[in-house]
Write a structure and sequence with these properties.
Chain A: Belongs to the HypE family. The structure holds two protein chains of two kinds. By secondary structure, chain A is α+β, with helices and mostly antiparallel strands. In chain A, 30% of the residues lie in helices and 22% in strands. Chain A has a seven-stranded mixed beta sheet with strand order 8-10-7-11-9-12-13, sandwiched between helices. Chain A has a four-stranded mixed beta sheet with strand order 1-6-4-5. In chain A, strands 2-3 form a two-stranded antiparallel ribbon. The chains are: A alpha+beta, B alpha/beta. The structure holds iron/sulfur cluster.
Chain lengths: 348, 377
């Protein structure tokens, strides 16, 4: 695609997405070339094909896909673009895999400011470069005003699993330790505090981050002792532990005092009537680890910047009810349940 | 809010638990009702029962605003939301409360009604101002704590001469409900419930003060201890109640001195009195028609009264016959006495109102406490 064919430059400063940007004509080609390719630039995109071709690695590959509809589009610590890169990289990484390539698909609402779209695309490109995982193919569609909310992004990721590793959600065994990589609730509270109808001021920054580097150190330290990893996004730590309990057929016993929560997140949750255990994270993981590997994995995590606050928060137990039970900081016991009903607005 | 941690200290809690165990006469048993849903939630959330001796029992009361709203009122709100041009503004919890025929506000929204979840009465006012061609109705519920903000929204609407803002008022009064429970046949003649005292409301009492409870303490010879919503507040109140029972006293004591004064908040009370007046009676789920227990808008503010503006007729509707919410709200039954608990009825598919709000007895037990059922069985 030669940029010379188009005289007029894309008016990024004042322009807006209109229906022609999705119509398959020159306007669309220009948007793709000047905005997306510019932001994501890599060898695969430069070849200008509708697909990306690459060599296949030996061994097992993983693939995952996710959609991002967060509102507002920009929040402290990130935006929908960086989230779409980090979230999908993390879903690949939770298999213990090294993420290799991403695809990105955009649904744009007519009227979206090109300046905002550029900010989002640049942030995606930066996140992908920082993670070393290029966005190698993509798609763009435009829908009429009111049929979407600014921009929705879908990303797909593929990666390769180191030989001998097979992490899966049904593998937790009684006695296994539960390790959490850091504080919970930061992302959800950062997004919700940005919403206009929840007006309170907090200094809470989303934890949005790509976790594959942390995962790689855990794989080295824990090897076969790693049973399962999952990133507690929507539904928070509570939902993740309940999912793993169901899939592995075990219960979990955790201690509230061991679960790190920033005081300002606790305070904001108090105001919002939320339980930090149910608030989304975008840069945290939960690992279930064989008891003999737990200390080594924990030490490796703490040595990594994204795991410096990692902690063993409890363990898996035999429990036919598959309850997640918690000793409260107060000294009593309680269930940690799934969040019921969708009370939370769009956070990822 | 940072101060909250000091009211949740596990070491102090264990020490208080030990004092409660020493104070409680092993030959006696103590049954206290926590009136408020806020207390019900704190008790379940922090596992307070685990810190109490077996002969001290807590009975959940009717102080959960979502729980006590009868089916007929939900039906009326649903019908209202289905009218052309109406935008119904409601708290999130109310969305899932089942009405008649399997309907709920959530379902009505899915079929096209314009229902918006808000966090305060003022949010509804803002929507009315921003969208002048919608008829914005605020579905107001709650006890004395939530009434002053509703009164404020109505006064602002009057000042700003808004023509498209009304309030569907379902505000209710705590003292009338406590009196109703104390006078109920379950307690007085049938002897189905024994109550030895009340943990009095926290936030409600900041508005109405501690004086209104003096009558119950006196007339029904039941001690009342007003307590904050933090778990240590609740435990402290339990210790104070046990002390009163042991000494044969029945007084109103105030554990929550950091926020509650005897006369309450005069300003808030005056704001409410300016806009609202008592209804002759109001239907409560579980308690039935309770005289002088609900509020409506005064004539001077009739233009903002959704019931008058839309000519809403109140049609009482029966509860799901298997649901025990009514008996639970009166303190006669426990959630686990209901056949539907945890089988058909869960927070995902609530069959009754007590399974909806986190302050409801069924939801609190399901969400936080159901592991104890396994230990009991
Ligand atoms: S479990 Fe459900 S149906 Fe039974 S009393 Fe509670 S809310 Fe009603």
């Amino acid at each position: 695609m030669s940029p010379k064919a188009y005289r007029r430059k894309l008016d990024i400063r004042n322009g807006r997405v209109d229906l022609s940007h999705g119509a398959g004509g020159r306007a669309m080609a220009q948007l793709v070339a000047d905005l997306f390719h510019e932001a994501f630039d890599n060898d695969w995109l430069r070849r200008g094909n509708d697909q990306a071709a690459f060599d296949v690695a030996q061994g097992r590959m993983v693939m995952t896909t996710d959609s991002y509809v967060v509102s507002p589009l920009f929040f402290l610590g990130g935006d929908i673009g960086s989230l779409a890169v980090h979230g999908t990289i993390n879903d690949v990484a939770m298999a213990g895999a090294q993420p290799l390539y991403l695809s990105a698909s955009f649904i744009l609402e007519e009227g979206l400011a090109l300046a905002e779209l550029k900010r989002i695309a640049d942030s995606m490109g930066a996140a992908a470069r920082a993670a070393g995982v290029p966005i190698v193919t993509g798609d763009t569609k435009v829908v009429e005003r009111g049929k979407a909310d600014g921009v929705f992004i879908s990303t797909t990721g593929i990666g390769v699993v180191p030989p001998g590793l097979d992490l899966s959600a049904e593998k937790a065994l009684p006695g296994d330790r539960v390790i959490l990589s850091g504080t919970i609730g930061d992302h959800g509270v950062a997004v919700m505090s940005k919403r206009q109808n929840l007006s309170f001021e907090t200094e809470i920054i989303s934890d949005s981050a790509a976790l594959h580097g942390l995962v790689a150190t855990m794989v080295t330290a824990g090897g076969q002792g790693l049973r399962v990893m999952r990133d507690p996004t929507r539904g928070g730590l509570g939902a993740t532990l309940n999912e793993l309990a169901q899939q592995s057929g075990v219960g979990f016993r955790i201690a509230e005092e061991a679960v790190p929560v920033k005081p300002e997140v606790t305070a904001a949750c108090e105001l919002l009537g939320l339980d930090p255990l149910h608030v989304a994270n975008e840069g945290k993981l939960v690992a279930v680890v064989a008891p003999e590997s737990a200390e080594a994995v924990l030490a490796a995590m703490r040595a990594h910047p994204l795991g410096c606050a990692a902690a063993i928060i409890g363990e898996a137990v035999a429990d036919e009810n598959r309850f997640v039970e918690m000793t409260t900081g107060f000294g009593g016991g309680r269930i940690v349940d799934w969040l019921s009903g969708e009370q939370l607005p769009r956070i990822c | 809010m940072r101060h909250a941690e000091e009211y949740r200290d596990g070491r102090i809690a264990r020490a208080l638990g030990a004092r409660i165990a020493r104070a409680a006469d092993p030959a006696a048993s103590y049954r206290f009702m926590e009136f408020c849903g806020g207390h019900t939630h704190a008790i379940a959330r922090y596992g307070i029962e685990d810190l109490l001796p077996g002969n001290v029992q807590l009975i959940h009361g009717p102080g959960c605003p979502v729980c006590v709203l009868p089916v007929g009122r939900i039906d009326a709100a649903i019908r209202l939301s289905e009218r052309p041009k109406v935008t119904l503004c409601t708290y999130g919890d109310l969305m899932r409360v089942p009405g008649s025929h399997g309907m709920s506000l959530l379902r009505a929204k899915a079929t096209g009604a314009d229902i918006r979840m808000i966090y305060s009465a003022l949010d509804a006012l803002r929507i009315a101002e921003a969208e002048p061609n919608r008829e914005v109705v605020f579905f107001a519920i709650g006890f004395e704590t939530t009434t002053p903000p509703t009164a404020l929204a109505i006064r602002l609407a009057a000042e700003r001469k808004l023509k498209n803002f009304t309030v569907f008022c379902n505000h209710v009064l705590t003292p009338s409900a406590i009196q109703n429970i104390l006078e109920s046949p379950d307690l007085r003649t049938l002897g189905r419930v024994r109550l030895d005292g009340f943990i009095g409301p926290a936030h409600v009492s900041t508005v109405i003060g501690s004086e209104p409870y003096a009558f119950f303490a006196e007339e029904f010879e039941k001690p009342v201890v007003i307590a904050g919503f933090e778990p240590l507040d609740v435990m402290q109140a339990i210790l104070m109640l046990i002390g009163q029972v042991n000494e044969g006293r029945h007084e109103v004591e105030n554990q929550y001195r950091r926020a509650v004064r005897p006369q309450g908040n005069d300003r808030a009370k005056a704001d409410v009195a300016e806009v609202f007046e008592l209804r002759k009676s109001f239907e409560w789920r579980g308690l039935g028609l309770v005289p002088y227990s609900g509020l409506r808008l005064k004539n001077a503010y009739a233009a903002f009264d959704a019931e008058r503006h839309f000519g809403i007729e109140y049609l009482p509707a029966p509860d799901n016959p298997a649901c025990e919410c009514g008996a639970i709200l009166r303190g006669v039954k426990k959630p686990t006495d209901c056949k539907l608990f945890g089988t058909v009825c869960t927070p995902e598919t609530p069959m009754g109102s007590c399974m909806v709000s986190a302050e409801g007895a069924c939801a609190a037990h399901w969400t936080y406490g159901r592991f104890r059922d396994r230990e009991a069985s």
